[in-house]
């Protein structure tokens, strides 16, 4: 195995903590040039442990976001440290994306959401060996900020959530920092890394080398799409803003969202975009696209909703696209400081909690489909919720719609301090993700039931409740992908046991399996001071839960990552753990966001 020189760079830590790590050691790294450059690498004991759980919790949280600068040149065969890869485990690859670096060599740190995309691949071959690869997505921003010869970094792009310490602040219009770090997809034999609001990047699936930008919607849309020649004052404002946002801030006219859907029954890829000016105006323009297995555009639907919304995830059924109206509003003072470069761009927006209910829009999926009901009139959920992620949605025979998702309160969802990142100090505060609140305010699994009158004569009824009456903090709901858009029995999610006094809600430390028919909940938990990321379901055969769960286990106190294989049918039993594979310590990586399983048939 070969790897590029490794340096582990944690985010800046508070100096007031009573317990500190051992002093850092300095490694001299030769570069292809004649110069020799220094980089700091944290040197830690085998396991960091104090007598104060709050101190341990702080460090554990920091080590979940440790920068990883190494990239593998050749695949690394992982060591199995528990159990064995089952003989019936399918051959294929598990791709996981997320940020890889959080601090540069010139004093700047960035929010985890602004960290450059670091793609990880776990390749299962026919011999049941698992090989590991990891490389940065070579985006335009990464090419500018990373010096290949010296292997040093200088952040020049602000990104939506960060302010540069060692770079240009005032007048810095490099806001749309497409880091391709949010989700990953294999479709039509193309491996794509997506970001919230930018063009996906295509990756060579065997080597993880970046091929280049892959514009899904180029040719489907034009600069003028979604803005009429007439209309009201907001149409005029949109026409004025669009060229400014594109010309000055390099915001594409339509911003592709990072969450996609796969309609397995129709074998279609579904994506959604919004207009660049939507972030500033009290209306939202969404365009949905449906592609066949060769990226041929089959359907395109556009909807103009008269409300100021921020959408991260969404749902679909046989007849509808479903949008939960996460309502926002413009902060005038924040917008002025954001544009000037003094504060992050995200400070221009705030959650709008003025309504006690939550609008849900049922948008007709096909132009020749259901048109009896006016889609402009939202269904009002009786409680206020901010939707995070969708696990599944489907229609019953009586046209009732069921949605399984995770949501939190508007009060908990703090734009400016997601992941506990403080842009003023550049530090991570785990307490921000563990504020003592009611369970319904924290991220948790919900079941949304909507009774739809097919003739459109009656107002749809909506009910929201905790899924299976389970109130643990949870997120990243997933299902067997073959049941996407159809009725399912099982849903899996990352969750918190609540056993850690100083980190009761996040990061997550267990995988939960919920049976929506008998309301049972079964869990598998990691050991103390270990966390888990998003689970991914790997189909083995017939039967909804006949398969395996892949999840990364982050043993932060010893700075190790493990790939865990669980038997989906045995979650909750003593023998649920099938295998644990160890990533070499010098390739230990930070928390990933979203992943994708691609069988060899897909590849």
Overall mean pLDDT: 86
Give the distance, in angstroms, between the N- and C-terminal Cα atoms.
24 Å
Number of strands: 42
- Using only CA atoms, what is the Rg? 23 Å
Low-confidence stretches: 1-46, 222-230
Question: Structural class, from secondary structure content?
Answer: mainly beta
Give the number of helices.
4
**In one word, what is the shape?**
globular
Helical content stands at under 10%
Largest sheet: 6 strands, antiparallel
Strand proportion, as a percent range, falls in: 25-35%
Please explain how this structure is put together.
The chain is built from four helices and 42 strands. Strands 6, 37, 38, 39, 40 and 41 form a six-stranded antiparallel β-sheet that branches. A five-stranded antiparallel β-sheet has the order 5-9-8-7-42, with no helix packed on it. It is globular, with a radius of gyration of 23 Å. The model is unreliable at 1-46 and 222-230 (pLDDT under 50).
Question: How would you summarize the topology of this molecule?
Answer:
Elements: E1 8-9, E2 25-30, E3 36-41, H1 53-63, E4 67-68, E5 76-77, E6 79-83, E7 92-96, E8 118-124, E9 130-136, H2 140-145, E10 146-147, E11 152-153, E12 183-187, E13 190-194, E14 201-203, E15 210-213, H3 233-247, E16 254-256, E17 261-263, E18 268-275, E19 284-291, E20 297-305, E21 315-316, E22 320-324, E23 328-330, H4 332-340, E24 349-351, E25 358-364, E26 379-381, E27 386-395, E28 401-408, E29 421-422, E30 427-428, E31 444-451, E32 461-466, E33 474-478, E34 490-495, E35 510-515, E36 520-525, E37 531-532, E38 536-539, E39 547-555, E40 560-567, E41 577-583, E42 595-599
Antiparallel strand pairs: 1-4, 2-3, 5-9, 6-41, 7-8, 7-42, 8-9, 10-11, 12-13, 13-14, 14-15, 16-18, 17-18, 18-19, 19-20, 21-22, 22-25, 23-24, 25-26, 27-28, 28-31, 29-30, 31-32, 33-34, 34-35, 35-36, 37-39, 38-39, 39-40, 40-41
């Amino acid at each position: 195995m070969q790897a590029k020189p490794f340096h582990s760079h944690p985010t800046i830590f508070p100096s007031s903590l009573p317990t500190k790590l051992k002093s850092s050691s300095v490694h001299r790294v030769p570069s292809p040039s004649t110069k020799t450059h220094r980089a700091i690498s944290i040197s830690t004991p085998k396991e960091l442990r104090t007598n104060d759980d709050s101190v341990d919790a702080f460090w554990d949280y920091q080590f979940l976001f440790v920068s990883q600068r190494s990239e593998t040149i050749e695949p690394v065969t992982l060591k199995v440290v528990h159990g064995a890869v089952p003989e019936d485990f399918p051959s294929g690859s598990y791709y996981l994306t997320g940020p890889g670096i959080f601090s540069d060599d010139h004093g700047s740190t960035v929010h985890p959401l602004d960290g450059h995309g670091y793609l990880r691949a776990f390749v299962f071959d026919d011999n049941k060996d698992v090989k590991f690869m990891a490389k940065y997505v070579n985006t335009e921003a990464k090419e500018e900020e990373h010096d290949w010869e010296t292997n040093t970094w200088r952040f020049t792009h602000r990104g939506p959530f960060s302010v540069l310490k060692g770079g240009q602040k005032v007048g810095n219009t490099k806001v749309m920092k497409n880091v391709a770090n949010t989700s990953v997809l294999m479709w039509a034999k193309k491996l794509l890394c997506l970001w919230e609001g930018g063009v996906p990047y295509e990756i060579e699936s065997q080597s993880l080398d970046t091929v280049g930008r892959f514009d899904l919607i180029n040719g489907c849309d034009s600069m003028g799409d979604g803005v009429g020649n007439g209309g009201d004052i907001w149409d005029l404002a949109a026409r004025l803003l669009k060229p400014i946002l594109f010309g000055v801030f390099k915001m594409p006219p339509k911003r592709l969202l990072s969450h996609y859907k796969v309609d397995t029954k129709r074998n279609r890829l579904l994506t959604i975009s919004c207009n660049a000016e939507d972030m500033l105006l009290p209306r939202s323009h969404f365009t949905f696209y449906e592609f066949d297995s060769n990226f041929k555009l089959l359907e395109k639907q556009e909807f103009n909703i008269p409300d100021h919304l921020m959408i991260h995830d969404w749902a679909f059924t046989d007849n509808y696209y479903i949008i939960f109206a996460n309502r926002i509003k413009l902060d005038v003072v924040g917008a002025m400081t954001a544009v000037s470069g003094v504060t992050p761009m995200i400070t221009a927006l705030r959650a709008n909690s003025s309504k006690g209910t939550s609008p849900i829009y049922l948008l007709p999926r096909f132009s020749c489909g259901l048109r009896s009901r006016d889609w402009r009139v939202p269904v009002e959920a009786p409680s206020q919720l901010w939707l995070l992620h969708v696990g599944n949605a489907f229609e019953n025979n009586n046209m009732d719609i069921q949605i399984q998702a995770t949501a939190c309160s508007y009060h908990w969802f703090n734009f400016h301090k997601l992941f506990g990142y403080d842009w003023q100090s550049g530090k991570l505060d785990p307490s921000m993700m563990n504020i003592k609140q009611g369970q319904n305010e924290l991220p948790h699994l919900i079941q949304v039931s909507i009774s739809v009158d097919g003739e459109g004569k009656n107002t749809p009824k909506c009910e929201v409740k905790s899924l299976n009456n389970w109130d643990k903090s949870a997120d990243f709901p997933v299902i067997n992908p073959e049941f996407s858009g159809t009725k399912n029995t099982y849903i899996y999610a990352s969750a918190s046991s609540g056993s850690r006094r100083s980190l009761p809600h996040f990061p997550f430390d267990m995988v939960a399996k919920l049976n929506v028919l008998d309301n049972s909940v079964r869990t598998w938990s990691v050991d103390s001071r270990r966390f888990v990321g998003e689970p991914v379901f790997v189909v083995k055969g017939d039967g909804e839960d006949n398969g395996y769960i892949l999840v990364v286990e982050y043993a932060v106190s010893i700075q190790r990552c493990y790939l865990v294989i669980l038997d989906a049918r045995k979650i909750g039993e003593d023998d649920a753990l099938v295998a644990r594979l160890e990533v070499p310590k010098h390739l230990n990586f930070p928390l990933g966001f979203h992943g994708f399983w691609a069988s060899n048939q897909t590849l």
